[in-house]
Amino acid sequence: MEKNVSAVITAEELQSVISFIQQAETILPFLISLSNEERHQLPKLGSKSVDFVNDSSETVKAFPNIMPPTFDKIEFVKDSDLVKALITIKMVLDSFHQKVDDTLMEVGSEAFSKALEVYAQVQFQKDSVPGLRSAYDKLKVRFARSKYKQKEDDQIVNN
Fold first, then answer.
1. Residues in Cβ contact with 31 at an 8 Å cutoff, skipping those fewer than 6 apart
2. Residue 139 and residue 145: Cα distance in Å, rounded?
3. pLDDT at 48 (0 to 100)
């Protein structure tokens, strides 16, 4: 099943997309980045936990007097509402991200397949076309084996 992606992103379009993403970041200035350690330490919010948070928030709204005065009800409700909004944004972004990933995978595969065809012709004609040898030397680097891999393969053959 061949899917041919044939498109062009102009420099202006690319800059427009980048600007749009940057604008979204300025609209949401509270967004943060967590380290791997911080991610590991936080309690995780799964689908059951989202419902739990929503139900808890509704309970606090309906029965505000059950919580001690030290509990910041307003902040909790704000956090709960922010969770809902961010989940919606994440769903839209995840869909967009998946489309970008899938398109990149497809067009990358198409480009790599064609590049292999170019390499085959360059390899075949490198000695008969003046100046092609330098292109061949540059292209063949992609297929060069590391010294470690070569040594490992030599050991396998010699054993």
1. 25
2. 13
3. 87
Residue among 109, 143, 138, 144 at smallest CA distance from 126: 138
Q: 25 CB contacts (<8 Å, ≥6 apart)?
A: 31
Residue 4 has pLDDT above 90, yes or no: no
Average pLDDT over the chain, rounded to an integer: 91
3-state secondary structure the chain: CCCCCCCCCCHHHHHHHHHHHHHHHHHCCCCCCCCHHHHHHCCCCCHHHHHHHHHHHHHHHHCHHHCCCCCCHHHHHHHHHHHHHHHHHHHHHHHHHHHHHHHHHHHHHHHHHHHHHHHHHHHHHCCCCCCHHHHHHHHHHHHCCCHHHHHHHHHHHHC
- pTM, 2 dp: 0.75
Dihedral angle at the C-alpha atoms of 19, 20, 26, 29, nearest 10 degrees?
-120
Question: Helix axis angle, 132-139 relative to 73-125, nearest 10°?
Answer: 140
Residue type, position 65, single letter = N
